[in-house]
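Consider a typical record:
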Amino acid sequence: MADEIKIGVYVCHCGVNIAGVINTTEVMEFAKTLPHVALAKEYKFMCSDNGQDLIKQDIKDGLINRVVVAACSPRMHEPTFRRTVSSVGMNQFLFAQANIREHASWVNMKDPEGATRIAKDHLRMQVAKVAQLEPLETQVVQVTPASLIIGGGIAGMNAALDLADQGFDVYLVEKEPTIGGHMAQLDKTFPTMDCSACILTPKMVDVNQHPKIHLMAYSEVEDVEGYVGNFTVTVRKKSKYVDSEKCTSCGECIENCPVTAPNEFDLGLAKRKAVYIPFPQAVPGVPTIDMDSCIKCGICADKSVCEPEAIDYEMKDELVEIEVGTIIVATGYDPYDPTEMKEYAFEKYDNVITGMQMERLLSSYGPTLGKPVRPSDGTAPHTLAWLQCVGSRNFRPGMHNYCSRVCCMYAMKQARQYKEKHPDAKIYIFYMDIRAFGKGYEEFYEIASREYGITFVRGRLAEVYESPDDKSIIIRGEDTLMQTPIELKVDMLVLSVGVEARPDSDKIAQLLTIQKSDDGFFLEAHPKLRPVDTLTAGIYVAGVAQGPKDIPDAVAQAKGAASGAAILMAKGEVEIEPYYSVVDAAKCSGCKACQSQCPFGAIGFDEQANIATINIAKCKGCGTCAATCPCQAISQNHFKEPQMVAIINGVLKDGGLY
């Protein structure tokens, strides 16, 4: 005979978050009237040690064998209470949590009576469900002690080094011919004004020389199969048409190449050869042949030019399969392209450039060797203006409504650098709000204004057009503090563009079955408690791939992602929650409708038995297959039909609100 169902209900005050609005005593007394409820109690903080001890003691005394806690969001403390009941021998999956804070108290602060009614409904639903729950057991899978990191910028490199230093094999995949990311394009970094290359280059060398890091530059992830702890990844190593084993990086092929093409690293401000190394400190330092520009003249392949005979025009892409236990996504960002903002005339007028282009002009190994000039005539500008929030904090179609966080600071940094080179220059920064949020940033802002004489003007620009006489830029706008119109003639206008998600982020999200937020960046599992985890176990996100941030924050997040991956790999095994779906072989008709609908690729098919099969490690318990199956042959653990019907019946009867 099955054990009698004895449910314990515990109502949390959550300080005044719940009890300040909801009549918790009334809710507790209501709970005692519900079927199968053996006892009901209330306490100020159920998540505290004393609150958890109340639950433990009642289980030990045999008074209850199932638990419902009416408190905050299950995302916050469901794991806490599961550990509580499990620690005294009760199956952790015989627990349910009613969210009466976010779903009742916080949304009905002006209506305590209504909030109390809604709290009762939520409690009634969970009591009805918990009476139908079945004991479940977690599954354990082994974890391969190796990690894949997608993206070789400053975040990806730091994550790779942290994991490699702990003894794990790391496969660092970078789409470009060199690691370094956008940081390699910068001249100095705010607020300390450190040389970017001086910080970055040693890191790049360390990555390349580390025996545990397998650097795969000029490569892309083609396919990802498997599940947490056991991912099989296919990587396409794109052909450089230069044999890296033979190449000595002497540079003779570059010197003798007769073909030039736009230099992507210098953002079109300079030219490069068809065979090229992106920048002097590039790692790896092996040239790449751009076949879109190459005319296959054969000069570089001639033995008189390339003595080791490293050039191979027939070289093919190579597909490499690797086995890893964890994945870190650090794919970075793209600068916003302001071409669509016609009012700012980018690419229409030569002397309107972006902030990233100014970085290359300021760089000592940039196209002008650190001495910025006007693209129109090659002269040093005397009057410059920076325009903030280009592409950010804008609700127009094609714009982004978020703050990109770095634009204010890099504009001040660039303006300060230019002032140091040209003390007599006149510099204006047009802004909406200066956001100097980081350590030492506010002081940096004050110094820019007080010591460098940079003029800050609050207001957007309305018009930008070119003077036909000297190709100077005439800008019109409003000083919103003084409420006066402004017309200003400057030698150069710099658009402080924000950051946006990379265009290939959709492909990455699909390959890894991870989610993206509305702003296009990868979505974290929880913005506060799990900022580097994704909702797919074993996959982490770091750097600007997760959202706009500066270098220190990107590095900190990379270290957090590496720590999460290392914990998983160090344990050697991981528990899988038993929310996976199961197939009733007697009911399955073999129609395969579920297989095509599964977003996680967890459903296979047994051709011999003519039934669907489910990989429980890959299944995330989304329930799509159960809803799709026309034969009702699939059910989802913990969310089976009787359990869901119990919730519906529980809220519809006895005066339920819904």
User: Anything to note?
Assistant: The chain is about 25% helix and 25% strand.
